[in-house]
Design brief:
Number of helices: 13
Low-confidence stretches: 1-14, 332-338
Pfam families: N-HEAT_ATR (PF25032)
Strand content: under 5%
Order of helices and strands: EEHHHHHEHEHHHHHHH
Oligomer: single chain
Strand order of the largest sheet: 1-2
Number of strands: 4
Number of domains: 2
InterPro entries: ARM-type_fold, ATR-like_N-HEAT
Organism: Coptotermes formosanus (Formosan subterranean termite)
Protein name: Serine/threonine-protein kinase ATR-like N-HEAT region domain-containing protein
Length: about 350
């Protein structure tokens, strides 16, 4: 087969003629373009994109079910792998940033499903990329906790800049992979939506994080501690649920220092939000839901305490349960017990 100079570059190196194959886009580029165009269109008018967002998210979910080659390279060369990584990171970032719009909050569950669908493919076929992306979700939680910390003085608006793919000249000839960025320091509502979305995603891929990378797993606990310290009660509930899910996993172990820090933060978080929780303005139905979630966490800590998995300081454990008892008093009969 003849090779055209448009496809390859002719070099003369040290007196030897040779042909070097020019970088090419991956075979699935057309599919990427088909995903890229509506995503860019949605971001041009987020506030009026509810219908188009639903269609795009459904399309991504279905693609993950039947066409894994869109996210998993069939060729094993480094260039192709990097191109796939760049597009996947960009797409996950764009899915994540959809929650910057309060209008799209009704699509959070569908958006989470789309992200998890992509992540499950990465988990199965591209483990290192999977762990890298999970780490980026944790970085988002760290950034948001920093903004929510009232002890930190913001000298300038804080811009969330995550899920930025590595540049690729070949891809950028057809795709603009610049990532969306948003100021979060002036919108606590946006922070809560982002935190909720990330915690939902992490809950869905929890087992894999525990299995594949211990450092990321330990970082997860540290981030949960930070989130408990500064986030509003609506977010703390998701932390309760995620922490209980982790503790229930067979073979669970946690560094003793981290587990005591977590439970200290849990006790402090319960104390700090007790007034909010017991307020008559806090709907009874929500109080019961929060209480059941908290009960699940306390039950599993109680069951594991004194084992190899959990070994809390006795005074800390007693203090934590005392705070929970205070919460109990505000719950309708049958809603909560310790």
């Amino acid at each position: 087969m003849e090779v055209s100079e448009s496809d390859e570059e002719h070099l003369n190196h040290m007196g030897m003629d040779c042909w070097v194959t020019a970088p090419r886009p991956p075979a699935c580029m057309k599919v990427w373009v088909m995903m890229h165009m509506p995503m860019k269109s949605i971001y041009s008018d987020l506030e009026n994109s509810v219908t188009s967002v639903s269609g795009l998210l459904d399309s991504i979910i279905n693609t993950c079910k039947g066409y894994k080659d869109v996210f998993v390279p069939t060729k094993r060369d480094q260039q192709t792998a990097e191109q796939y990584t760049a597009f996947t990171v960009w797409l996950l970032g764009r899915l994540f940033y959809l929650m910057s719009s309060s209008v799209l909050s009704s699509k959070m569950d569908l958006c989470t499903t789309a992200q998890v669908s992509v992540l499950r493919l990465l988990e199965r076929y591209r483990c290192s990329v999977f762990i890298g992306v999970i780490n980026e979700y944790l970085n988002c939680l760290e950034d948001i906790a920093h903004v929510q910390n009232v002890d930190v003085k913001m000298e300038a608006p804080f811009v969330l800049k995550r899920f930025v793919p590595r540049s690729d000249d070949v891809l950028e000839e057809q795709l603009d992979l610049s990532q969306f960025q948003v100021v979060i320091s002036n919108s606590m509502g946006m922070c809560v939506r982002f935190q909720t979305a990330v915690l939902q995603v992490l809950s869905s891929v929890l087992s894999s994080v525990m299995e594949y990378d211990r450092s990321v797993y330990n970082k997860l606990w540290v981030v949960l501690c930070d989130t408990l310290a500064v986030a509003p009660l609506t977010v703390k509930v998701h932390v309760f649920d995620l922490a209980a899910s982790i503790l229930r996993k067979a073979g669970f172990t946690m560094d003793v220092k981290i587990q005591n820090i977590f439970c200290q933060q849990l006790k402090s978080a319960l104390s700090a939000t007790n007034d909010v929780f017991t307020s008559e303005e806090f709907p009874e139905e929500e109080r019961v839901g929060v209480a059941h979630t908290l009960k699940g966490l306390i039950d599993v800590i109680t069951d594991l305490n004194g084992t190899e998995a959990v070994d809390l300081d006795e005074m800390l454990f007693a203090a934590m349960k005392f705070v929970v008892v205070k919460w109990k008093a505000s719950i309708p009969t049958g809603g909560f017990y310790v």
